[in-house]
Design brief:
single chain; mainly alpha; MetI-like fold; three-stranded antiparallel sheet; flat
Length: 338
Amino acid sequence: MSTSKVVTPTPRKNFLVRFFMQNTSGEGTGRDLPLWKQLLLQLLTLIIAAEVMFPIMYIITLSLSSKSQRPTSLELFPQEFSLVAFQQVLDRPTANPVTFIELLKNSFVLSVGVGLASLLVAVTAAYAFSRFKFKLRQVLMIMVFIPLLMPTIGLSAALFLMMNSVRLYECTGGAIALEPFFSCAAGGAVVFNLRDSLLGVGIAMISGALPFAVWNLKGYLDTIPEELEEAAAIDGASPNQVFWKIVLPLAAPQLAVTFFLGFMGHWQEFAMPWLFLTQPKDYTLAMTLYNMTGQYANAIPWNRFAAMAIIVALPVAVIYIALQKQIVSGLTLGGVKG
């Protein structure tokens, strides 16, 4: 006597369900990605792209216009192609007696100088935290991290007072006095104020750039095997030779990433220079961009303002897009071990 097993047929899904549930990942392993999820992700990315591109296209349209008046309608695509705004910005950015080349030089010197100085200090501090075991090591690391929890502008008052107290006087008798260490007995004139100079702004910006640089480099230095340094020491290399000839060459990619990330922030820094500097000859490109705005919206030369905004943002944007892969990989490698 034989028994037959009754097999219940699986109901076939309709065409629409099968169409939207098909796997579009193209991979045999891993998580499947149904078509409906793929379409949803594509729609989400298109919305994000439109939101990001909207202000960029609007600024480009304004910069290519020959009219300086406030636009009366929303135009995302240029109706004309005029470079008069860029020519006016390059010839005379603002009413202040300063040329575009001087503004460019100030921004370049400030951003590169701050980046290199903070990188030099940060790599030595990060190496000490990574390799040496000393008392209060964890406490000091936390203290380095604390400034990252508050904006740099929050420290501006203390930095302003500190830098403003360092002044160079030319005394009445011709002598030179450096305040706060020395002072003129019979009075004198201020010939240099550390606060009102690119040097003072640079020192203040370094204080804000160091915490991130130390933490970023420390995580990367932890990934370098200590056996390489021990082998070099066995071969007779001194600690300085190990640091300069072994550690720094291996950390060169992360050094470049840390410098570039700092350079981006310093290049577009506005708040600190605006609070410290008062002389137009020391202005930066970011300060000049703000200086182009007036009290009323109708008084702003919109085409020149947009052209200056593109000039300020374009160098950093181009370099970032070209080195995006290296920047992302450098940041992820720095977080492997900590």
